[in-house]
Write a structure and sequence with these properties.
mainly alpha, 204 residues, 3 helices, two-stranded antiparallel sheet
C-alpha cells in the first residue's frame, strides 16, 4: 500500500507536468498562428501594392508606345486623325488596358490566397487558445489522485477480504483452531487429586 501511495503521488505530479506542458505548447502554437496570420496579411498587402505598381508600369509603357507610334506616323506623313492612325493608337490603348487590368486581377487573386491563409491561421490560434483554456494542470493532478485513491481502496478491500491484515502470530481461542487452552490435568489425574511427590528433606 505504501508503494501504491508513492506511485499515486508520482502519477499526480506527472499528470500536472504533462497538462502544464500541453497548455504551454498550445499557447505557443496560438502565438505562432497569430504571427503567421500577420505575415500572411502583410503578403496580401504587398501583392496588391505590386499589382498596382505593375499596372501603372504597363500603362506608362503603353503611353510611351503611343508616343513612339505617333512620332513614327508623323515622320511618315500619316495624319494622326486618320483612320489608320486612330486604329493603331486604339489598339495600343486596348492592349495596355487589358494588360494593366490583368496585373491587378492577378494581384487580387494572390492577395486573396494570402488572406485566406491569414484567416486559417487566426482560426488555428483561436482553437489553440480554447484548447489551452480547457486544460487545468491542478485538475489533471486531482483526477490522477482520485483514480489512484480508487485503485488503492479497491486493492485494500481485496486484501482485507483475503485476510492480509489479520495478525499471523496471534493466539486464537476455540476448539477447532488448534489454539492452546489451559489444562486442568496438571498434577491431577482422572479428575481426582493426585498427591504430589515430596522432595527430599521433607517428611511424610
Amino acid at each position: 500500500m505504501g508503494l501504491q501511495g508513492a506511485g499515486a503521488g508520482i502519477s499526480a505530479v506527472g499528470a500536472y507536468g504533462s497538462a502544464k506542458s500541453q497548455k504551454s505548447a498550445l499557447g505557443f502554437q496560438a502565438q505562432m498562428a497569430d504571427m503567421n496570420a500577420q505575415l500572411a496579411e502583410r503578403r496580401a498587402q504587398i501583392a496588391l501594392e505590386q499589382g498596382a505598381y505593375q499596372a501603372q508600369e504597363i500603362e506608362r509603357q503603353g503611353a510611351r508606345a503611343k508616343g513612339s507610334q505617333r512620332a513614327s506616323m508623323g515622320a511618315g506623313n500619316i495624319a494622326l486623325d486618320s483612320p489608320t492612325a486612330l486604329a493603331i493608337v486604339a489598339g495600343t490603348d486596348l492592349v495596355t488596358a487589358e494588360d494593366a487590368q490583368q496585373a491587378r486581377v492577378n494581384a487580387v487573386r494572390e492577395a486573396f490566397g494570402h488572406r485566406t491563409d491569414a484567416t486559417n491561421q487566426r482560426n488555428e490560434g483561436l482553437a489553440a487558445r480554447a484548447n489551452a483554456k480547457g486544460i487545468n494542470p491542478m485538475g489533471a493532478a486531482a483526477t490522477s489522485l482520485l483514480g489512484s485513491a480508487t485503485s488503492m481502496a479497491s486493492s485494500y478491500y481485496g486484501m482485507k477480504q483475503e485476510g492480509a491484515f489479520s495478525g499471523s502470530g496471534a493466539v486464537k481461542t476455540g476448539g477447532a483452531t488448534g489454539a492452546m487452552k489451559p489444562s486442568s490435568r496438571s498434577g491431577f489425574r482422572g479428575g481426582r487429586d493426585r498427591p504430589m511427590t515430596r522432595l527430599g528433606g521433607y517428611g511424610g
